[in-house]
Amino acid sequence: MKGSAARKQDAKTDSWGGFQQGDWSSTINVRDFIVRNVTSYAGDETFLAPASQRTKAVWAKLQPYFAEERKKGVLAADAQNPSTLLAHPAGYIDRDNEVIVGLQTDQPFKRAIFPCGGLRMVETGLKAAGFEPDAKVHEAFTKYRKSHNDGVFDAYTPEIMNCRRSGIITGLPDAYGRGRIIGDYRRVALYGINRLLEVKRQERAQIDDMWPTDEVIRMREELAEQMRALQDLASMAKLYGRDITQPAMNAREAFQWTYFAYLGAIKEANGAAMSIGRISSFLDIYIERDLKEGVLDEAGAQELWDQLVQKLRIVRFLRTPDYDALFSGDPYWATECVGGMDLDGRALVTKSSYRMLHTLYNLGAAPEPNITVLWSNHMPAAFKRYCVKVSRDTSSLQYENDDLMRPYWGDDYAIACCVSAMRLGKQMQFFGARVNLAKALLYAINGGRDEVTGEQVAPQSMPVAGDFLNYEDVMAKFDSTMEWLAKTYVHAMNCIHYMHDKYFYERLEMALHDRDILRTMAFGIAGLSVVADSLAAIKYGKIRVARDAAGLVVDYQNEGNISTPQFGNNDDRVDQIASKIVTSFMEKIRKHPTYRNATHTQSVLTITSNVVYGKATGNTPDGRRKGEPFGPGANPMHGRDSHGWLASCLSVAKLPYKDALDGISYTVSVAPQKAHLSETQLVDEATKAFDLYFGRGGFHMNLNVIDRETLEDAIKNPDKYPQLTIRVSGYAVNFVRLTPEQQRDVISRTFHGQI
Amino acid sequence: MSTPGALESGSRHDLRTGASPDAPDEDKFKDEQGAYGYCHSYETSSRYDGPGLRVVLFVSGCLLRCTYCHNPDTWHLKDGTYVSAEQVLRRLGEFAPALRSIDGGLTISGGEAMVQLAFVKRIFAGAKEMGLHTAIETSGFLGDRADDSFLSVVDLVLLDIKSSDPDTYRRVTGRDLAPTLRFAERLASIGKPVWVRFTLVPGLTDDPANVEGIARFVAPMKNVEWVEVQPFHQMGSFKWKAMGLDYKHHDTPPPSRELVNRVLGQFRDAGCRAR
């Protein structure tokens, strides 16, 4: 539905003219604004426009930086001024040609520091990149100001420290920003800062007469911080000569206001994942209005998208080598969601969904922004086909099942990081990385001792006796190990997020939320397929153990080489073991109360840490050798899903989303087609394959369309492939920026024939 | 009896899924009801072997010895794994809903699928009950064995016609051509849908007269929906080596694009729908 009244362009007060009014006009409700005003688009991609001259000029200016960065790594860093909304003056790439402005610091590619997260991380990162840490910053954060990192280590127990060291729990956000919070950046464009401040003031006034319990006092302080952040955001925009206290008047302003809000967030927080949310169909409403009023054309609309995406491609954070080993390729997950359906059954696919994807042609393939298609089997066929084509050409898209998520999260959620659904402005998460379940299984076998160091990490228990593993015995032991691990894990997470709120509160991102929100605490597991295959090997085969001199079980032999079921072949005998582990660990996690009463959730996701986890884990009963990478996310182990992608994806689709509400990651690599089918038929067949997988309850698909030979050539000749993008667990990377180990891991994955 | 990669844990040759590891392996093959048979392997995601997405079951046993065969490990019946039709159908059933939703089906290939006729028929009948499209890939050499009741559970025949010249056919396969042509004519007479497949091997089957002969033979048949030209490839050569067999095509290149186009052109000129 569209409003009919034409708008007076000169009337500064008429920013909402032409829009259908509704609940959103009197309360903060972006979702209501979208469903009342969005124009669904069921046509194809032929309307799209190429990159404008201005876009090309800005892009050309950035190319030398990209090239230099591939060689050198970090190009520049500001070691003196800890990042805040106002720490840096305005920065530009090419002032004459930038349609959207704003940089993290005063120059592109200059990285900022965030010592509130942890000084050690800052100083290690600076030194690793060849920069000198600043003495004044050091003094301030050792003498006068405590960091999140310091706080967490004050609260950790020796047991947690042991788990961290042994690698059974890894990647905890205890030394930097936790990320995964998505501010509803659209609110700034739709309402302007003044209105948002007024609402925050009301939210505050409502709790003035509440008795000041810890919770109430904290809420008051947080609201005060949020209001300060909003004021600072307005001041930051002023540095760029923009007044964002009022709502955006047109599409260009809406893009700029929204981007400023996101820019503010990445100036204030260095979270591992900083999603932008679900902006394309929102901004499309502004574009449609401008097109109708004749003040914008298609070339101009595409220019806005291209230029916004250019900005999203140059977000940079200063990380440490350890961090890079876990999350390779400098990702920041500026995840943007396109597509999906609304609750009334109308597609939220707009022309701007296409324009967003089209940036991958106008600017070339790239890992960021992490474009996520919310796949619904009910979306218009033309859009499905376009997505498949873009995947084939760029391997830069990931897909998540909107039909599965919508009943849980409604129709205005976005994806934090890779696979975590968050209702925008109404939900945040306490991010918690993951535990290594394969290692936990080995602890169970060895009475709580680490299979690599021999150290007692889990509480001492009875190790397995005898020469052969018994399924019931190992399951019982594994169950109690998981009980211990779950408890220790929740314990650690509570410490982390208490301190993060205290010392590194995301005041701006939270200002772009309602006061009363749903908090989830997002736990995670790695090594699921290794554990499932191991347990199936024990159950259906005859596994002999080999012990070292100290009596530690260090190896496993499949006696008689009996073939045992393996995850990834649509074989219920092992698939049910995998599902059971997901449910069982979730149930154990749920037993322990969380900080701020957060709802427990879980992901089956590894990012690129499947390599690091594998490296730290000894031989496993499934025949996997010590040091060998795990399958990423919920993937079957490399090469074991040997009956084709259909069998593989049906296994993964069985994992229960209800017990993994933080997402289940699945990466598929298929060779480019060589069949007798025509291009049209292939695209049709591929969309049917998507419908099949998601229709069977699959949650996520990270799709690569590439052959092994290309990847091998890229290792040898990286300069030939500067933009070669490949999707790993939940995100995409520039292949040539992965570590050699991770490159090998990607190549050793199962490549299926075409889908 | 050496089957490369066979029965390795999780290998695609592993067809014991569902069987207890110590299931008896006694020979019940004489069972004319087809309750048991020998299968080599299966895969679930083929786009080449029939319309839509195919689960392809490779059964073992073949009477032909094609010099370019890329599955020589399926020649001998007992190279396969001994399984019951019930077990195969149970496994197929786990894919049936997905296959139905994507307009796919079951293709039985080999080996030569008609060696174990009763077994294959039983599986096809079960697949039809599940609402799946069925296809058989065959050389047609045993076509005389396929009675009407067998063909009633087959929706599509992928018929390999390796040559139109009896001498060439014998050089390629070691067998007679006539049974294949007879089978093709019978399929035409009952209007059973057929995709003719022709493997293009440079220096062996690429003679224009040879191609012309097949084209002329097939062109009038209204039941032939497609003629598929399959370029020779070397992907099976490692198996010959592993099995210690004498492989004649080490130096045979895949056909050039020009050659493929010439052959496609010959078929099309004769009035066939070729691809």
TrEMBL record, chain A:
Keywords: Acyltransferase, Carbohydrate metabolism, Cytoplasm, Glucose metabolism, Organic radical, Transferase
Superkingdom as given in the UniProt entry: Bacteria
Gene Ontology CC terms: cytosol
Record's subcellular location: Cytoplasm
Main subcellular localisation: cytoplasm
SUPFAM superfamilies referenced in this protein's UniProt entry, alphabetically: PFL-like glycyl radical enzymes (SSF51998)
Catalyzed reaction equations: formate + acetyl-CoA = pyruvate + CoA
Residues recorded as bearing Glycine radical in the entry: 730
Name of the protein: Formate acetyltransferase
Organism of this sequence: Bradyrhizobium jicamae
TrEMBL record, chain B:
Classification via CDD domains: Radical_SAM
Cofactor: binding comment: Binds 1 [4Fe-4S] cluster. The cluster is coordinated with 3 cysteines and an exchangeable S-adenosyl-L-methionine.
Subcellular location: Cytoplasm
Cofactor(s) needed by this chain: [4Fe-4S] cluster
Enzyme class: oxidoreductase
Recorded catalytic activity of this chain's protein: glycyl-[formate C-acetyltransferase] + reduced [flavodoxin] + S-adenosyl-L-methionine = glycin-2-yl radical-[formate C-acetyltransferase] + semiquinone [flavodoxin] + 5'-deoxyadenosine + L-methionine + H(+)
Chain ranges of the Radical SAM core domain: 48-269
GO BP terms, alphabetized: glucose metabolic process
Keywords, ordered alphabetically: 4Fe-4S, Carbohydrate metabolism, Cytoplasm, Glucose metabolism, Iron, Iron-sulfur, Lyase, Metal-binding, Oxidoreductase, Pyruvate, S-adenosyl-L-methionine
Keyword Iron-sulfur: yes
GO molecular function: 4 iron, 4 sulfur cluster binding; [formate-C-acetyltransferase]-activating enzyme activity; lyase activity; metal ion binding
Chain intervals for the UniProt region annotation (Disordered): 1-30
Known EC number: 1.97.1.4
Source superkingdom: Bacteria
Function noted in UniProt: Activation of pyruvate formate-lyase 1 under anaerobic conditions by generation of an organic free radical, using S-adenosylmethionine and reduced flavodoxin as cosubstrates to produce 5'-deoxy-adenosine. Activation of pyruvate formate-lyase under anaerobic conditions by generation of an organic free radical, using S-adenosylmethionine and reduced flavodoxin as cosubstrates to produce 5'-deoxy-adenosine.
NCBIfam families: PFLA (TIGR02493)
Alphabetized PANTHER family for the sequence: PYRUVATE FORMATE-LYASE 1-ACTIVATING ENZYME, PYRUVATE FORMATE-LYASE-ACTIVATING ENZYME
Name by which UniProt lists this protein: Pyruvate formate-lyase-activating enzyme
Native species: Bradyrhizobium jicamae
Lineage: Bacteria, Pseudomonadati, Pseudomonadota, Alphaproteobacteria, Hyphomicrobiales
